[in-house]
Amino acid sequence: MTSGSAHELVLGIESSCDETAAALVRGGREVLSSVVHSQAAEHARYGGVVPEIAGRSHLAKILPVIDAALSGAAVTLDEVDAIAVTTRPGLIGSLLVGLSAAKALAWAKRKPLVGVHHIEAHVYSAAMERAETPWPCVALVVSGGHTALYRARSPLELERLASTRDDAAGEAFDKVAAILGLGYPGGPSVSRLAERGDPRRFAFPRFRAKDGSLGFSFSGLKTAVLYHVRGQDATRATPAPEEIPDREHVAASFEAAVVDVLVEETLRAARRERARIVLVAGGVACNRRLRVEMTARAGDAGIEAVFPSPAYCTDNAVMIAGLGWEHLRAGRIAGLAADALSS
Ligand code: KG4
Ligand code: ZN
Which ligand is nearest the CA of 313, by number? Predict the structure, then answer.
């Protein structure tokens, strides 16, 4: 580590999905400010993110959010050493809003521009708050758009070990929330209901690949919940939420199945890789049951499970500024020709 660069101040900008966020972070870990504008209310009645609405909302919020982050940190753009922005993956129209704003500021103020991979930034969010660096380790990123395991040699060297064959875990939460008549986003509403339920009441399926390879699948589980609620007759309508019997037990049993699979596959990967540390990040890492089960079962295997604070599990710009600082130190500057990529 070169001491000259250890305190560089990075402005992070995130707009890949339905959160417009900006943050100021010094030295990759000292958070001076973090502002997140969530569009959840604007997408709620559609039960998922509508790309056109997302793009327009980012456009309306991006500059006020950046301004709020700068004034929250009591700094001016002139004092910033670099601007880091999510370039991939995400909704292209959303990514372009953040990237264009970042390019304009970088050009106007002659600051280096750094392009950050959203998934790598989620992984970094778990590392940022730990006193010592966790590398090399295994990382689980579990969000609304992604569920995958990585071998992480360093913040900038991630190799995917396995991913979901169908739905992401967060997506399964969102769909089961809809089946149970709960609000969007589904993760928080399902887990709130699950707290009153018995996780062992219903034995929902846990996916495991027949050939023993690592991986996830949640569509069978989601269908099992649907059939449980509606019955086997596909022509029948799903009952009204208040008429679903044992709703809290369905929620708890579903959540237990998701958590079981996430913990099991992560620890299998950790054992294979002989990793002593697993980082768990992304929106679903907010889930209390996942945090408790992963920590306990990893602990039994002599493995440390590291989670970000809940505020940094869901999309935020602290993780973008944090990983942006690592790029900056490694000399990875994007330049004004940087492109946004959906995948
Ligand atoms: O990381 P994130 O903010 O956005 C993506 O990059 O996808 O993750 C959002 C996802 C949503 O699917 C939401 O339902 C889920 O994270 N989520 C949760 C919880 N809080 C958010 N899932 C389970 N339990 C939670 N407490
Ligand atoms: Zn995310």
Answer: 1
Q: Is the pTM of this model over 0.85?
A: yes
Q: How many residues does the chain have?
A: 343
Residue pLDDT, tens place only, 168-212: 999 999 999 999 999 888 999 999 999 999 999 999 999 999 999
Residues 308 and 317: their CA atoms lie apart, in Å, by 13
Ligand 1, residue 288: give the atom nearest the CA: 26
pLDDT tens-digit profile of 89-128?
999 999 999 999 999 999 999 999 999 999 999 999 999 9
What are the residues whose beta carbons fall under 8 Å from the beta carbon of 270, sequence distance 6 or more?
138, 278, 298, 301, 303
Count of beta carbons in the 10 Å neighbourhood of residue 103: 18
Farthest CA pair distance, the chain: 67
- Name the closest-CA residue to atom 8, ligand 1: 283
Nearest to 161 by CA among 219, 121, 87, 216: 216
Q: Does the CB atom of residue 184 touch ligand 1 within 6 A?
A: no
**19 strand-pairing partners:** 38
Atom number, ligand 1, closest to the C-alpha of residue 145: 7
Decide: 217 in ligand 1 pocket, CB within 6 A: no
| Ligand 1 pocket, mutate which of 314, 315, 316 (most atoms under 8 A from CB) | 314
